[in-house]
Write the structure tokens for this entry.
Amino acid sequence: MATNAELKSYARRQARDPVGAKADTLIQAAVNDALAMIARERQWAWYQSHGAVTLQAPYSTGTITLTNGDATVVLATGTWPTWAASGKILYDGKWMRIASRTSGTDIELQTAWAETTVSGATYVLYRDEYTLPTDCGRFGKLYPGSGWVYGGEPVGFDDILQAYNGYSGSQQYPSMWALYKDQIIVWPYPSDNTTVNLMYYRLPPVLSLDATVADWDTMQNELLYRAIDYQLSITMGTVMSGDPGTTRALYKDALDRAVKSEKVPQSRGSWFGTGGREMPVRLAFP
């Protein structure tokens, strides 16, 4: 294990033992910047993570009133769910983004209703946007359920917008998904409350406490040391390992070796590619 204190001690030696608050700040920044730089280099098996997202069933209890020139949607004979601010209203084939939930009966649209006032109207409130894990650095794939081996297909955000206008129904598991800022958007919107699995590559947490262990494979610490050397040389000038050009070259050499020695098994193909008829012996589960 490499603790934050151990990594800072290494960095201080490489920087020729500077002292003072400024030096302490630069050394800590170099350690954290090195970890972040490595994490962004590739899809490391070390940072591969899994999570889950609970999809919300749509809500359509009661009726709504939409008033011309007003952004407020008033609900009768029902209560807006707590997640309403993260959803959209679907009425008469039109979908509208929601800005906020101001009460159990009132929500505010992002844009005022521009058409004729309607009351007693049926509607669907659905949620198709969900927040990614806070440590997500690179998204991998969505795995909706046992009936959808490969999960929904990744598409562009513009494809999702086009799908809004071509289909207004729901289904249990999404058939497509897209990323938008820190959100994953699924389509069609879910018809039931259900949990779907996802795979992603996390970013290492920022180190601040000396006892905290760095989120990195200790078998690959040479790469981490070379990354620290490079980050130090950028902010503090020439270090024991050399100037920025030299330390960058040494880092790249270490990166090439780390990639070749990463703990990734040799691919033997996918059982799913056989149609599930017979699982290859070497892939069989114990």
Q: What stands out?
A: The first helix runs from residue 4 to 14. The radius of gyration is 26 Å. The chain has five helices and 16 strands. The longest strand covers residues 194-202.
